Give the backbone structure.
Amino acid sequence: MACTMYALSKCYFGLNLNLMCKPSEVEYTIMPNMEYFEFLPFEPSATDLFDLSDVEIDKEYELIVTSYAGLCRYRVGDFLRVTGFNDAAPQFCFVRRKNVLLKIKSDKTNEAELQNTIENTSLLLKEFNTNIVKYTNYVDTKQISGHYVIYWELLAKNSGNTPTDGVLNQCCLQMEESLNSVYRQSRVADNSIGALKIRVVQNDTFEELKDYTISRVPR
């Protein structure tokens, strides 16, 4: 399912005008009459803000919004890639959240890179008719060397033919080979990063965790 709109609780940004597209192809069209939008280029030294009409196709920007509700140049924290224009309104796809990183030393693995790595690795599970339903991750630095830990919730269509430990070890190696060069350098050359680990959790673990978290919210 693809969401019909892109929004915050305080304001609306864009609409999905092609509801029948694949989720991976979703793009949103900015609604210029809703708020005042500005864009900060995804560059380390960028300080100049761009208006709607000045953004360029295939470039990434951080969205900044000034709203009727009182937000003033609020940095949303989302990075967007401009995919085209609908009349004069830019269309974009969501790329990743800002500062969502796995980091041990000089390595920096962002959300988009991790997602692509997991998608590539999931191909090893196809012969077992198994899909990765949900995942999460964290960096374990309690021991030397620190390492990435990835939690997978899997859906096996044939319970009698599930991925073996050997296959999961291959998945770990595939993920490491798919990560950036800085990670691989630290992992192989100086061993400052330990071996990546995949932990398979029971079905519905993420739903149970969500329900538990909600139950602890004061009412």
About this structure: DSSP finds four helices and twelve strands in the chain. The two ends are 31 Å apart (CA to CA). The longest helix spans residues 165-178.
